[in-house]
Structures are given as C-alpha cells and as structure tokens.
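Below is how a single chain appears once it has passed through the pipeline. First comes the sequence as given, then the structure the pipeline wrote out for it. We keep one example in the README because the format questions we get most often are answered faster by looking than by reading.
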Amino acid sequence: MKQFDCFGLDTANQCLLRGGAPIDLAPKPFAVLRYLVENPGRLITHDELLDKLWPETFVQPQVLRTYMLELRKILGDDAGQPRFIQTLPKRGYRFVAQVTEGEAAPHGRRHSDLVHGAAGTPAQESRRGPVVGRAAEVARLGTLFDQAARGARQVVFVSGEAGIGKSTLVDTFCDQLAVGHGTRQDQGVRVARGGCVRGIGGKEEYYPVVEALRALCAGPDGEAACRVLTRMAPAWLSFGPEAAAGEGAETGTGVRHQRTLGDLCSALEELAAEKPLVLVFEDLHWADDSTLHLISALARRRAQARLMVLSTDCPRHGSSEDPLKGLKHDLLMRRLCVEMVLAPLGRSAVLQLIARELDQQALPAGLADFVMQRSEGNPLFVIAMVEHLIAERVLARSAGGAWEQGAPFPEMEAGVPDPLMRMIELEIGHLSEDEQRMLEAASLMNVAFPAWAVAAALERDAVDVEEACDGLARRLHFVVRAGRDELPDGSHSAFYCFAHGIYREVLYQRQSSARRGRRHVRIAERLGELFAGREASVARERALHYAAAGDMSRASRVLEDAANDVAEAGVC
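Resulting structure:
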C-alpha cells in the first residue's frame, strides 16, 4: 500500500482509497497515478509515461492531459499550487507529495464493499444474480425511496455510458422493493415501468408514460389504479395513439376530455397517497419532449407526495441543445432532483463479475488483468469478453470441470466480440455517411484524436471538421471533447477522446486496408508539414503511421533521418 496525505494506493487490488474508503477510478487514470506515485520526486516525461502505459502503441500526448484533469479533480489538487501532481510545461509531471509504505486493507472488507453488503454478504445468490459492484448505489436508491415514502417526492436520474449497468441497477432496486423489508413491506409499493425507444420519441408523445400507465392498470393493484385515473384523469385511460395526439377520451356521459399534465400529476399523487409509487422510465435520452415536461412538472409541484420518478439515460456530452440535459441542469440547480452517474467497475468488482460468469472463484492466471484492460471496467464489456474467450476456446473446461486457459490471450487489437461489434455498429449505423467517415478517420489516431488529423485524413478543411466533431461530441455518448492544443504554427486545434477503446477498434476495423493506408499516409505527411524543421520530434509518430499503411521503407527513412538530425545536433 502506497500512502500519501489522506489517500492510499492499494496496488494489489488496484484501488484508490481516501480515508480508507474506495474511490471510483477507471483503469487508465489509475495506471497513470500508480506510475507517478511509484516514482515520487522525479520528472516523468510525457514520452516515459506514454511508453510505460501504452507500449508499442501510438497515443497522442493530449490524452495524458485528460487523465491529469480527472486525477486532480479526484485528489482535490490545484495545478497552480499542486499538493500532489506538478506539471512541468512541455516536459512532463512530478509527484511532489511524500509517499510512505503501509499495510493493505483486508480485501474481504473495505474493497469488497463494492461487491458485498455491509455485513459482507455476497451481493448475488447466483451467477445471473443482482448487479455486481453497485452496493453503494443500491443503498442510495433505497435511502431516496425511504425519503419519498415519507412524503418528500424524489426525481432520480441514473446516467452512464452504454453497458455500464444502469438497467441492472434499477432492476436490483425494484426487486428489493418487491421483496420488501421493514416499513417498505408494511406499506406496499406500486412500481410502474416504461421505456423510451429510439425513433419513437419524435412520433408518439408520452410513449413511456402510456406504457407505465398500462402496467399500473394491468398490475395486481390495477382496479384501484383505474378507479383513480377514471375519476381524476379519464383521458389518460385511452391508450391509443389518437389520444396521444390530443383526441382525448369520452366518459360515460359522452363528454370528451383532453389530456393535460395537471390531471395526470394529480392522479399520480392520489395513487401515491394510497401507497408509495415508483415510476421508472428507461433510456430517457430517447424520450419525447412531452415526457420530459411531465417529469419537470412532477419535480416542481410543491405538495408532499410519496412519489419517486427513477430514470436511466446515456448522457450526451456538452450539448446545450439537448432537452434532457437542460432539464437535468435546471432541476439540479433548484435541488429538485438527484443525478447518479455510474463509473466503471473497479478491479475487485470485475473479479467478482468474472467469477460469477464462470461460476468459480479461482480464476486462470492473467485473466482478470486481460479482461480489465480490455473492458476498462464496463460490465457489459466484461461479460462479452469472457463469452468471447470461451467461444474462441482461449478458456476451456479442464477434466475436473473448472475453467482454465486453453490458449494464449489474444493481442489487444485482435478483434471485438461479436455482440459488442453488433451493438456499436447499430449505433454507428444511425449516423450519416459523412459522420461515419469522420469517426473512422478519428480512429486512426487511437483513443485521443485531434481535429487537424481527421481533416488531414479526409483532405477536408480543418475548421469545418472541428465544427463537425463538436457536433458529434454533443450528440454521442462515446465521443468527448477533451481540450485544445497549440500547433507549431501558432494555430489551435481541438482534440477529442473515444469514451472507450472498443468503439475506436470497431471504427478502425470497419475500414478497408487500402482506405486506412491512404489516410495514415496523409496524417504522416501532415505531421511533417506541421513540424517542418522539427521533424525529429514527431519521427516516431510519423513512422507508426507509415508502418500502419504498410510502407515500411518510408517508416525506416523517417527514423533514420531523425537519428541523423539528433546526431548532427549533438556534434554541433
């Protein structure tokens, strides 16, 4: 255990602790921090850090800046007056805090809190049991529900990237409500769920709301729910699309009613007065505006209500025009909602998930590290990687029935499991051809990519490409704007990151070898133009691009020229 200030770096379990409590930290930022902490007091150059963490792989140095920003935020560090990480401009970083050795916390208690309950009881009873690694989040949802059950209405957004475990977390929480304990069991709970569907939000208003109302009326307590709706919001009992368009419904007296938010809010509050009501809306990023207006209205009403609105969504980074982001921002500012952003799983939770998938506690040597590196803690990716290794017979059953390594683990660029490939291809397929070409060109620069490189690969205007990349970062959850860089000629170019390396791999592999080769060459040539007179400083990057294009002679020539320039400079 490496200790500094109030933090502990448990290298055995790959966990960062603050005051003994684990902190969510993705694998790559953890690796950066670990290398700095293990080399305190000395300058760690950009090249040393890149070579150590990304051997034999070209990665833009800008990605380090992104990780440093994340680490400083977690550590509470100030770049201007650093307590932990000092930046030496254009050179690298130095870890300036005093580091001491300490004993690691017992794995069975603190670190397993992520995958066990407070008393150390396993978080799941079977291989396909409840969510792994989210005990704290499930407990928090329980606390928020208890507040709602006492009359303090709650609006909760569970956000995170695709596959991070949002729906599984909500499923686990709802299962606990169904089983009940303490006061929850005594008073009973109504749970109604509706899901948003891509493409329907712009065509059918209140789609997830209607689905949830159907579930209420068809449930075991359906007659009581229908009576309340008939009395207070009769138009909402008509579930056809004509009612959604504003036709309303007729009562027994022939009077036609219109759907209004006020009627529905009052009816839901009346239902919640009988017993606590939980409305679950999944994939809210695809919701229609009317559904968002209902959530806004429910959050802003001042009367007490035993009501909880719980939704899941994939955030769209940086979009000021996104209605959902605007709603969340406004409600958060007014303290009318709670947002829970799910981070990737830590190593201990990934170990637990792999063990559950294989139904054995003793794992083959190296399996956890391989899956952790490939999945970066995304639960869906963890499961897909394990299934992929089994399908490829890298993992095979022994004579005794246990899973063991049957073949070497594949190279990191050896491919993406088919289920993930199909999921990501489906997302990409909804983009225009021009947007797909831009993302493919971006993948040539690895996880972090600058706009100028995309422009060079496509032979496009750099300003137009940067504007287009900004648009993608606003709309897509897997592309994030990470900052701006000053180029040697004094101009500036924005750079971006793929949220997960697997997205980059899919985009890279879907291009033909010939097309990739041409684009790699254009980027290498543009690097030479940008660093004219200083070509030696980017010789390695240019050589990697030429090599990726299959032009080994030019790759060798670039490196030889750089070596000669360095030798001549040394003589002078």
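The first strand starts at residue 2 and ends at 4.

See the next section for the split statistics.
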